[in-house]
């Protein structure tokens, strides 16, 4: 499959102090609420369902419905409103599948820039919750709760797909992602080397 990627810079610092204060406010409170509501609710239901009811089917259906609502809301609504990113798959006339990753260009108008507070909320929820589901997966695996493993894997897949899609939107192609990771590791290695040389010199 071919990737159509639009590389643009997002979340650039604004020189105007008044625009910075506007960017720190939550401009889409409903989207911000539902960005966290479905995914946090699914985690809470997973943790408390054995205390609330003895029906595994009811718990499983509730969790999968919450995860599905979260997947749809994050992919189609909150990503576009909160950080100006979206991704989807389209099939052309030849039957070939294309994954499209888009990022909204930052305009000169302050009304179209992304809010820093919303950006933090978006990425915090997007990264933290899949990590929690991965922990649940290891917990279910090692405690031999096989019936819960399917539910947990569904959580990892649905929330991990959104995380992967939005990272591709933000960073760009796989080559850019690899070079970014390589640059980060190189910088960390250089810092540690310099710190060790400073310690030996002192």
TrEMBL record:
<keyword id="KW-0472">Membrane</keyword>
<feature type="transmembrane region" description="Helical">
    <location>
        <begin position="148"/>
        <end position="167"/>
    </location>
</feature>
<dbReference type="GO" id="GO:0000139">
    <property type="term" value="C:Golgi membrane"/>
</dbReference>
<protein>
    <recommendedName>
        <fullName>Golgi apparatus membrane protein TVP23 homolog</fullName>
    </recommendedName>
</protein>
<keyword id="KW-1133">Transmembrane helix</keyword>
<feature type="transmembrane region" description="Helical">
    <location>
        <begin position="121"/>
        <end position="142"/>
    </location>
</feature>
<dbReference type="GO" id="GO:0009306">
    <property type="term" value="P:protein secretion"/>
</dbReference>
<feature type="transmembrane region" description="Helical">
    <location>
        <begin position="29"/>
        <end position="48"/>
    </location>
</feature>
<comment type="similarity">
    <text>Belongs to the TVP23 family.</text>
</comment>
<dbReference type="Pfam" id="PF05832">
    <property type="entry name" value="DUF846"/>
</dbReference>
<dbReference type="GO" id="GO:0016192">
    <property type="term" value="P:vesicle-mediated transport"/>
</dbReference>
<keyword id="KW-0812">Transmembrane</keyword>
<feature type="transmembrane region" description="Helical">
    <location>
        <begin position="54"/>
        <end position="74"/>
    </location>
</feature>
<dbReference type="InterPro" id="IPR008564">
    <property type="entry name" value="TVP23-like"/>
</dbReference>
């Amino acid at each position: 499959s071919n990737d159509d990627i639009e590389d643009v810079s997002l979340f650039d610092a604004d020189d105007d102090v008044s625009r910075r204060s506007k960017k720190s406010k939550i401009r889409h409170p409903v989207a911000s609420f539902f960005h966290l509501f479905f995914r946090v609710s699914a985690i809470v239901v997973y943790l408390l369902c054995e205390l609330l009811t003895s029906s595994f089917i009811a718990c499983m259906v509730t969790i999968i419905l919450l995860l599905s609502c979260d997947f749809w809301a994050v992919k189609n609504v909150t990503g576009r409103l909160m950080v100006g990113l979206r991704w989807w798959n389209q099939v052309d006339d030849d039957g070939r599948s294309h994954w499209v990753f888009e990022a909204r260009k930052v305009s000169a108008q302050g009304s179209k820039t992304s809010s820093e507070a919303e950006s933090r909320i978006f990425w915090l929820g997007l990264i933290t919750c899949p990590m929690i589901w991965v922990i649940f997966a290891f917990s279910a695996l090692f405690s031999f709760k096989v019936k819960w493993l399917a539910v947990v894997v569904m959580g990892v897949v649905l929330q991990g797909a959104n995380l992967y899609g939005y990272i591709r939107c933000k960073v760009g192609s796989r080559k850019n992602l690899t070079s970014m990771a390589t640059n980060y590791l190189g910088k960390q290695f250089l810092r540690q080397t310099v710190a060790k040389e400073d310690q030996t010199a002192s």
